[in-house]
Amino acid sequence: MAFIKINKENFFHNLSQFVHKTATKNSIGIVLKDNAYGHGLKLMAQLSQEFGLTQAVVRSYAEAQVIKPYFKHILVLGDHAIVDKQCSFTLNALEDIDTAQKGSTVELKVDTGMHRNGIAFDELKIALQRLKEKGLILKGVMTHNRSADELSSELFWQSKKFEEVKKIVKNTGYTHIRFHSFNSASALRLPCENEDFIRLGIGAYGYSELPSIYKTLALKPVLSLWANRVATRTLQKGQRVGYGGTYRAEKEMRVSTYDLGYGDGWMRSNRLKAFTTAENLTILGRVSMDYVSLESHQEQVCIFDNALDAGKQLNTISYELMTQLHPDIKRTIL
């Protein structure tokens, strides 16, 4: 089966870049949702602990259960709030207050312009009152910036709106809670001293989707995808490869199959333009469920070592390319 290499040195390098911006490890929460962006949930939790991070962010309570041994506190973004001393739960709507278990620790999400999750700005005072009535412990108030990685001024007006949110919350009597809105792109663009907590996701794994006009940190990709040779054959000129015979050999050539396919989470489409691997090998014909074909007889080949570049070839983003890699693919630390 295909395998993934995790570059520990690059991961620690990326984390150090953000620690330098924030001046402390304690304000960083490593985002490990969706199998740590495809890198491996437990593996990246272990490395984060080794680096010295004490907080994490996940999507579900099931993910939180896996990584509890490695962190002091975990923020759960998308599950019902229950009493758990190690976890806080995001309230994405007023209804979440009603379903939250009394005594649970929560963080209230406010919609400042994303219009996806979070209570409306004009519901804020109502939400704060209902939190008290329900007996919930408010640990934080948060929002999410919709265009931090784009060349626009939207990040600034959303930040201004969040400042209004902070004033209302503080005036209601909540003075010892944390406020946070920064993801990786926000932290790259703006000073971090006013943020109590940084939700560090894609930047930790080596990527920035910011336009080149912005000066960003020197981030290094952490994940590389590899495949093993299964079989090799000599094709004669005119012979075709794979389902539908979409690739026709223009000369005699040595072609091998490798153990990676769309069943592993690799993208099937190879129609508009053939994908070229990190070693400048072209995938021949269609990607099948378990195999790709390459003009090579190497025992192992690197499919990609930079998800941003690979994503551009496949007309997608680094996030999608990495998160869809199957959890069963073996991941090892370099």
Automatic annotation (TrEMBL):
Residues 222-334 form the Alanine racemase C-terminal domain. Its cofactor is pyridoxal 5'-phosphate. The keyword Isomerase applies. GO terms for cellular component: cytosol. Substrate binds at residues 116, 289. This is Alanine racemase (EC). Keywords: Isomerase, Pyridoxal phosphate. The modification N6-(pyridoxal phosphate)lysine is found at residue 33. One of its GO terms (molecular function) is pyridoxal phosphate binding. InterPro entries: Ala_racemase, Ala_racemase/Decarboxylase_C, Ala_racemase_C, Ala_racemase_N, PLP-binding_barrel. It comes from uncultured Sulfurovum sp. Its EC number is 5.1.1.1.
